Amino acid sequence: MRIVIAEDDALLREGLALLLRAESLDVVATAGGPAEFLTALDEHRPDVAIVDVRMPPTHTDEGIVAAVEARRRRPDLAVLVLSAHVEQAFATDLLAGGAARLGYLLKERVGRVEEFLGALHRVAAGGTAIDPEVVAQLFARTRTDTRLERLSPREREVLALMAEGLGNTAIGERLVVTDGAVHKHIRSIFAKLDLPPDDRADRRVTAVLRYLEDVRRRA
């Protein structure tokens, strides 16, 4: 796995590089700003980019803008965004491009090494890793979604595995069912959650976010 790190805090940047290299991961470049990051992206063509939300010169949205641009240049690039606080608008902007190969974590998760590495590998493998606190705040002003109660036990099980970042084949292997059965369950989930095929949002990530918020509310 080839990784580029974009983080303006030198201590955190080098700490991340040391941590990942200790795990035998290939950190091909580090960058302290968005322009340097995009240059490294074009030069090294990494598999994964770890990007801080707030970067120079204004420390507002430069990092998230760079992450969106990186995804535009390299649709196959996995991006793990780190933020000191939940940036609700930024998270929504990033998710608007689809949830595959995308992670959004609070920086405090980095200290939980296994959790952080698990999220990194999940994103690199094509899955999604969204911080529970990000999910909570994205849904903080919404009413309880009772549509999840329409799901059958098996459909809820499939949705839980989707929330873990598993693709359809992996879900089928976990549940010992065919790909066709998984597709059928997911179509039913989308229908019961009122997510039509022409929905501009990524239906998979919308369903997962609703599930995660329901889990948080019940906890």
Report on the structure:
- It comes from Modestobacter caceresii.
- Keywords: DNA-binding, Phosphoprotein, Transcription, Transcription regulation.
- This is LuxR family transcriptional regulator.
- The chain has helices spanning 10-22, 34-44, 62-73, 88-95, 113-124, 132-138, 153-163, 168-175, 179-192, 203-218, and strands spanning 2-6, 26-31, 48-52, 78-83, 102-106, 128-130.
- With 219 residues, it is of the alpha/beta class.
- It folds into 2 domains: 2-133, Rossmann fold; 146-218, Winged helix-like DNA-binding domain superfamily/Winged helix DNA-binding domain (Arc Repressor Mutant, subunit A), CATH 1.10.10.10.
- Strands 2-1-3-4-5-6 form a 6-stranded parallel sheet, sandwiched between helices.
- Helix 4 links the parallel strand 4 (78-83) and strand 5.
- Helix 2 (34-44) runs parallel beside helix 3, helix 7 (153-163) packs across helix 9 and helix 8 (168-175) packs across helix 9.
- The chain is globular.
- The model has no long low-confidence stretch (mean pLDDT 85).
Which features does this protein show?
single chain; alpha/beta; Rossmann fold; Arc Repressor Mutant, subunit A; 2 domains; 6-stranded parallel sheet; 10 helices; globular
Concise summary:
The chain has 219 residues and is an alpha/beta fold. The chain has ten helices and six strands, in the order βαβαβαβαβαβααααα.
